[in-house]
Amino acid sequence: MKQAFIDSLTKLMEKDKKIITVTADMGFSVFEDIKKRFPKRFFNTGITEQASISFVAGLSLSGYKVYFYAQAPFISMRCLEQVRLDIAYHHLDVKLIGSNSGFSLNQYGVSHYGLEDIAIIKTLPGVTIFAPADSVEMTASMEESYKIKGPVYIRMTKTGNQTIHKNNVDINKPILINEGKDGLFLVIGGLLNRAKEVTASLKKYNINLNLYSCPLVKPTSRALITLLKANKKIFTLEEHTIIGGFGSTIANLIIDNNLKVRLTKFALPDKYLHVSGSMDYLLDQSGLGIDSIVNKIKKII
Amino acid sequence: MLTEKEIINLNKLSKEIRKQILKMIVKATASHIAPSYSIVELLVYLYEKVLKINPKKPKDPNRDIFILSKGWAVSCLYSILAHKGFFEKKLLDNYCIDGGKMIAMTTINDIPGIEASTGSAGHGLPIGAGMAMAMKLKKIDRRVYVIVGDGECDEGSIWETALIASHQKLNNLVAIIDYNKWQSFGRTNEVLNLEPLKNKWEAFNWQVIEIDGHNFNEIDLAIKKSHLSKNKPTIVIAHTVKGKGLSIIEDNNDYHYKTPREKELIIAKKEGLI
After folding, report:
1. What is the full DSSP assignment across B80-103?
2. Do residues A14 and A151 share a domain?
3. Does the ipTM exceed 0.90?
């Protein structure tokens, strides 16, 4: 996923001289080549997320398209008011790349986890949110972000450092991974791999899920609503707090469309973890272990 | 140096702008008259003598940029933009009306001449720095002027920008602090002392010029000096009086909030502001 980001950004910067990349001192082993190739269009503004976002707004108000890169918790919280006023309220052509979201920096604890970024950014009108699951979706998110003349938030996770799709994808719609008739399983981000394992496990019990990857978190697509209407049992999975994330979006869609369905949300519980651990350990602790998900789905179906 | 005639004209215009501000604020029962009055001379000087702007081509890429970082003093900015012909004067009657575009914090809202929406403290200066950087990238020989409130200098983002702008050698960025010594809840030196303010900006590697912000000759010299800077951004510390120009509200922080009513308006009339 990281390499897909670097490659896409490099291509876009080659193609369009109006693109500037700004980082608030993040991007070790990410931006070295871009810095060398585009020295005048790459800025490291230091560890100043707040001023950096306003500075980026100034560049964008002057006609540049800006990609701003920082760790997800810092981009979505440290400078939220700047994102709200200077980027979203001005509806600027700025792309916010939140790296290492979810439990990506598993050893570092809550200061570096991106647990709430979707819930927070989702409240800002006019900001498109992508949560890609793999390198193919990351490339597609970057290409789509370039076409959108407005603010975009792309949520990167280490779980997304994988290549799942074999072909190019339409990032604006749920992407079919497995066809089934026993329930709808909607996933955002890198946990798609885990969802595939869950789906495979369930096949042993003759349960066949309709599994989709849903990289477009906001705005929601018509295709997504059509899917919700066509299924009775719905499951969501995300590496994000259960409050205000993708599952909440689905819950709202269900209510808004008056659908008689059963929704089960798999997400991180509403509490802080105070332990260290591997990604698998943290997900297990959060109730997102493969067996735990499989058992819950089995009971419901 | 400005000629005597120029100064007379600038003072005359300043009075007109204060009249207009009073009219707008009274009509709308709005706040922030005092912080609007403290920057009148600064804005009048910039718009009359400095800014390379064309009201007929407000988006001209070759223009100077002015940003009101202390976005709550917008009645002054709207008044001067109307005077310059960016829009019709009668639009000022729409200040804060239902469905009006002219809201009480500086907001672009397609209003010609407004370059950035501000109002929350500490945003305008870094936005201005980004614009100054963009001018450098595009090799446009113009400048960005930003008026910052003194209380606004409490914000961390101001000092983050102090680092960024000097590091990037933005000698085309001119910030002016409206140092009226009041902030929302008291005297700046009692709430959160900014002093020694000059030394702070010097330590951040800015060119620092200290002036009386109501004296046109001093403003003139400061801005001309800012244009000579080779590789540093400039900060003009403009000592001002909050509410300057209407005796009853001068140096009185109540009028950060209060709308002038009967008793103030009687005095305003005596002092030629109505």
Report:
1. HHHHHTSS-GGGGGGTT-TT-S--
2. yes
3. yes
Window 44-73 of A, Cβ < 8 Å to B = 45-46, 48, 50-64
Taking contacts as CB-CB distances below 8 angstroms, the residues of chain B near A52 are 126, 160, 164
A267 and A236 Cβ atoms separated by less than 8 Å? yes
Residues within 8 A of A (CB atoms), B 19-58 only: none
Q: A11: which 2 tokens?
A: 């291509």
pLDDT given at position A68: 98
CA A268 to chain CA mean position, Å: 15
Same domain for A137 and A194, yes or no, is no
Q: Is there a contact between B117 and A85 if contact means CB atoms under 8 Å apart?
A: yes
* A193 plus A112 within the same structural domain: no
Structural domain boundaries enclosing A134: 2-160
Unique residue bearing structure tokens 């912000």? B213
Residue A167 domain flag:
no
At B57 the pLDDT is 97
| Residue A52 within any structural domain of the chain | yes
For the domain that residue A67 is a member of, what is the CATH number?
Answer: 3.40.50.970
Whether omega before A125 lies within 30 degrees of 0, making that bond cis, reads no
Q: How far apart are CA B159 and CA A146, in angstroms?
A: 32
Task: For an interface test with B, give the residue of A19, A25, A45, A84 to mutate (most B CBs within 10 A).
Answer: A45
- pTM as predicted: 0.96
B71 touches chain A (CB under 8 A): no
CB-nearest to A58 from B119, B130, B157 is B130
Chain B nearest CA to A67, separation (Å)? 14
Q: Dump pLDDT digits (tens) for B156-182.
A: 999 999 999 999 999 999 999 999 999
